[in-house]
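Lab notebook: predicted structure, single chain.

Context: the supervisor wants predicted structures on file for every construct in the current expression panel, including those that have not yet been purified. This is the next one on the list. No modifications to the sequence; it matches the entry in the shared construct table.
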Amino acid sequence: MSDVPDLGPLPQRITVSAEQAARLVAEQFPQWASLPVTAVANGGWDNRTFHLGTDMLLRLPSAEEYALAVEKEHRWLPRLAPSLPLPVPVPLAKGAPGSGYPFVWSVYRWIDGTPATFESVADPVRFAEDLAGFVAALQGIDASEGPRPGKHNWFRGATLRTYEAQAHRALDDLRGHIDVATAEETWAQAIAAPWDGVDVWFHGDLAQGNLLLQDGQLSAVIDFGTCGVGDPACDLAVAWTLMSSPGRDAFRKRLAVDDATWARGRGWALWKTLVSCANTLGEDAPDAVNARRVLTEILGNHT
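Prediction complete. Output recorded below exactly as produced.
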């Protein structure tokens, strides 16, 4: 399978303190030097995230591979934002390496909201329809010059076979704990489902931390580090990770998703969930419980 991208080794992530981030701001953006810098709770994996004052945000990539997304976001987010029905981050400034920090980084306007969870969505069908409207608007933007899948977005928008080895390792770890036969069948269907090859824009990581709510309603979509153009099936994984059956049906109907694309989307959800279940096997922490809930949604729904 020579057409399957090579993910390579896991990134070597670095730590960044609030003090170091504040030095970067003072050195490169003295107009903001007096503003306090504080770490954001649950600030994400790809970036070290900090509040800058009360209405700005610092995003400092945690590894060289994640820093590849910075130029992309600065180029494309200002172009995408006017065509989207919900607020998205738009960069205010781009920082350079300094103060012992080795990568480019970004300053954004802070967007209020709480991360969506399965339990916190007020109206599951409205949430699904609102998110589908956002996805449809994103897919409608001219993709002819957009960034193709690559290391900058961990090959979102490319073939699901990129993650086949990870999926099978997780399945091996989970034998005796889940319905592996159904999982293997679901995975095989996803791998076999064809894509028509028409590039469209996708977000790439419509996960709960990147979907914000206000009063239980979808209010913003953030973190476009994995965005690009290609196969949009990766953006359908949210139908299983954050939606129950009525919302999932509304989401699919609004987007008019064909069977093959739906199967690939379920495959993207399955890959990520299998890995999460394997990594939290035997645990009862909220993330582990949620991963098992999602797996039940995936394996119990084939429509």
